[in-house]
Structure formats: C-alpha cells, structure tokens
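Deliverable D4.2, example record:
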Amino acid sequence: MVKKMLKKNNFKQLMPIIKGFQFIFIAFPGLMIIPSITGFQPSIILLTAGLGTLVFNQFIPNYEPILLSPSIFCIVTLTACVQIFGIPGTLFGCMVVSITFLMISFFIQWQENYRDYLLPPIILGPVIMIMGLVLLPNAAYLIMGKSFLGDTIIYSTQEAMSIALITLLVTCAILLLLKSTSQYVALFWGVIAGYGMAVVLNVIDYSMITQAPWIGLPSFQFPQVCWEAALYLIPVGMMLCIEHMTGLITIQNKTHHSDDQLMTSKTMATNGVISSVLSCIGAPPITINSGICAMSSLFLNDKYNSTFWASCLLILLSFFNKLTAVVENIPLPAVGGVMILICGSLIIMGIKQLMSVSEIITDIRSMIVLCLIFMIGLGQHVYFTNHPFQGVMLAYLFGIVFNYVLPEKKASYPLGVMVYGSFMGDPGNELLQSIVKRIPVITPFKVEYARKSKNRSDAPVLVPVNKGGAAVNAEILILKPDISLDKAYDMLYRRAINFVDEDSIQYKDKDKHENSGLTINKLTQVNQIETVLYTSFAPNIQNILNDQTSLIEKGKILAYFAIESVNMNTFCSKRDGIRCLIEDIANGVRTPLTQPYENEILIRGKNATNLNEARIRIARLRGILPETTHNMIDMVEARR
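Output generated by the structure prediction step:
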C-alpha cells in the first residue's frame, strides 16, 4: 500500500500518519518522561492517552488538533505523591481530583461571563507565557546531556549539543525553506535527524530495543482508597484545568470556533470523566496538551485528521513493546531541541493574548498584576508544610484574585465606535476625520455571515447573532472629545446605510428610512472607554442560523449570494461579497462559517488557489472581465 502511494507520488496520503507521529514527539515529555520519573507504567500511559483522545474527539468533534496526555507541569507533585502514598494511593487521588473538571464545568455553564472571571487576557497571557518559561530550564538540561530534572548526566555535553543542534537546525530549515506540505511535519523530520545523529555518535543503547518483546499486554495498576492522596493532589487537578482552558482557547483562536459557553463546559466535563475513568486502570490524570495546541496554532497548520492517527499509534505502541522501546530510546537532547520550539510557541501565544488588551497593559494596575503573576509563576514551586504547589497554578490563582480586588482605573476616553469586518478598513470619511486613536479589541458579542446587504448587491455581511458565530477581531475608534453622543450616532448610522456626509440624515429619523433591521447599540466601560457604539443589523439569510443545516450547506448558501453580488458596479468599487470576505480575512476576522464559505468560492472559481484569483475568474465567467485582461490583473490582484 505504501509503495503504491509513493509510486503515485501521493505523499499527502501519508501525511496524517506522519503528523500523528509528530504529535507523539511533541507530547514526549508527558508520555515518556513522566513515567520514567514517577514510576507509572509507560505502556499504560500510551494506551490511556490514545483511548482518551479517541473518546474525547468522538464527543467533541471538529476541534483538531487536541491530544490528551499527562501534564508535564504536574511532575513534581505527582512524584512526591507517589513517594509518600505509593502508586495505588496516588491513582485514587488522581481519580478523585478529576472532579475538579466537573466543578469548573458547572461554573462555566452557570456563569455566562465565565471568561471575564476565569480567563481574562491580562491573566491568561502571562500564565501561558509562564508555562513556556518554566520548561526552558528543563529543555536546557536535556540539551546539555542531563536528565529532565538535571540531576543525572546521561550524555557528554558535546554529544548532546550536537544532537540537539541537528534537531533544531533541520526543523527550522524545513519550516523556513520547504513548501507548506513539508512544513506540517517539520518536527517529525527534526527528531529523525536527531535520532540519526545519535546513531552516528554511537550513543544509542540498543539493548532496550533488542530485549523488548514484540508484543505484550500493558501492566494495569489499580487504585486503593487514600483520601490523604486525594487532598495532596488538589493542586494537580487545578493545574490540569488551567492547561485544558489555555489549550482550548488556543484551538478556538486557531480554528475560529465560537466561544460557545455550552461547548466549553462540555469539553471540561468530558475531559474530567475520561481522566477519572482511566485512572482506575493505572493512568495519571490527562488533559489537553498545550504544547501541541501552541505549535499547531503558529506554524503547524492541521489540514488532516492527525489526532485520530496519533491516538491509533499510541494504542499500537502500548501493545507493541518493540516499537515502544524505539520511541523510548529517542535521545533526550533531540527532545530538548523540540522543547525549545514548544516553549517558544507557548510564550508567543501568551504575548498574542496580551496584545489583544495592549491598551491597558501599561497602566499601573495592569503592571502590578503582571509583575505579581510573573514573580509567583517563575518561582517554580512554593512549599507549604512540605506540599509542592505548582508555580503556574499559584500564578493563575493569585492573578485572578489580584485582578478582582485591585481597583480598576476609570475610563480614559469618553466615546468610541466599535467596528469589525470590512468596516475596519473603510469606516467612512466622517468617522475617519473624527478619530484620535484605534484600539484593537475582541467583540463582546458573536457575529456571523447572516445578512444580505442591499448596499453590496445582497452580498453576505457579518452581523451580531444570538447563536452560533464567534467573537472576532475588531477595533474601537476613539472619537475626538468635542464629538457629542448624538453626532456619533448620526455618523455611524450614515456609514452603515452608505450615506456618508449627508448631514440631513440622522439616526433619530431611522424609522422613516428603509432600514428597519438596523439599530445602534451602546456599551459602557469598555477598555477604559466610557461609551462605545456599534451597529447591529438583523439577520435575514434563511438557514444560516439553523442548527439542522450543515456547515457545508451554509457555505454553499453564502457562496451563492457572494457570487451573485459580483457585477460591474460592485466589482469595480470592490464592494462585492467575495471582496468583503477577502477584507474580513485580511483583518483577522473569522467565524465558524468562514472556512466552508471560502472553500465553496474557491471551488466555484474553477478550483482557484486563493480568493483573489477566484474573484477574477468568477468576474470573467459573469462577463464582467474579458479573458484578455488576465496578465496585469492576475499579477496585481491574485498576489495581493
């Protein structure tokens, strides 16, 4: 079968399997280093991680790439618990503390504004950064030839540095120089190169591989009631929930899933139940692997069902001891080279979270909160009565407390207008002349392509929705102090109905105009702005908000209206639906329907490679452009 694939030059068919292996390499610290230090059985951890991921993705579909594995951030507490209470007592504690997931799941379902309490960007950003920073010393130990905790020398420094350097160089070279298809598995080839370098240096111990049987059943271990261990592991349960939430938000930002309160609650509950059940057969608690989420969100785009193959490979490895030994024998310096990129990805993701509130992070209150979080988090582990509390967990908890109790600064700006989608690039001449500053934000409401705009020849546009959709990138346009609230209403209203600079048209007279679906809503105390206005059109495209209609069908509906909106007037003025979608994507605005909408337009544009190319081809098909215009337009538009 493999020969047939290669013979047909169809390497893409092997890509999901290769990337599944790559996910295992990224999760290596949790899958292989934790059992070597704590005493849990490696085969059990592989089996339960595979089973847990399969079950999770069965209940929570379309959230690629999510892989459940033990958290490397809990290694100190788990090790201490095993030494005090033994494996059976620790397993009982792991089983009980998984209830933490259910408690937070109930809170999320009960509290509509749960993200403001649990996951404000001013807390989430530094916590994600700390998760990357605290692992850097461990990565340095591995690169220098030591064990994960730095207490044992395994390789000479020269050998270890050579292996780590080759791993890092090959990975970076593939990411920077090769085509996108190869980039998706850069870490896989990096680790293979590091393994090869270790073979050349003759530092691989083959005895583990040769002595391991080909096939063997995992050694199951079972819990014994020990409530002391359950109390001892409470910080582990909290740390797992923190990593789950950070990983989930990273995936939501990458795939542009809506921040669905019910879905987030469901993921927490599902993770908790899976982790608790698997602890009954000998596994430490598992959670969403934040390293995979961070790496994938930045430069390992996932077009494939890779976590399914990663799960299958994990289960296979748990029974094929010879293969498990090969994976266990991956030189630790190669793992250190990979961890450098994982840590960097986490740090960058944290910075991106802080950038979403860039306007407030320099005020005194925010600086105090950030300083305290970093001080506590980078302290690594704090001991109270010989109990190791994780620095990341303490940083998160104290950050929530500080952010809640410290007094907030009053609004610095009196008035602003929130714009999103294509509105961001073209707010109109009136508003442009009245702007003193732009502040990037995330909409406090969800939007979706649910309305046909008559100003764009019935092209689909983004409007606020009550179900579905997603909170998206937006801007608040800070208006000059001399702009009154009534004037701001009027300017925004005229821009919304495309009558800019027509002073006689006012918002108070909107009922006299044919814009019954338009209202202008008001928010207060947003990002230190006293009053913020935004437009809200009523949805008018049937089936877009219907739960019974599939995403693919909704994409076809939107593509039909977008293509029908392409005429000589809209194409030349760049106000057709396809151009609107291009501008939205360029502004970082994506919703759950963006991808199926884009895919359908590309298909109808004769399988175009990008939306600009599809727009040109569709314009030709509709007789708007002659075939002879391809040279200059293709060069300018299709590459824009």
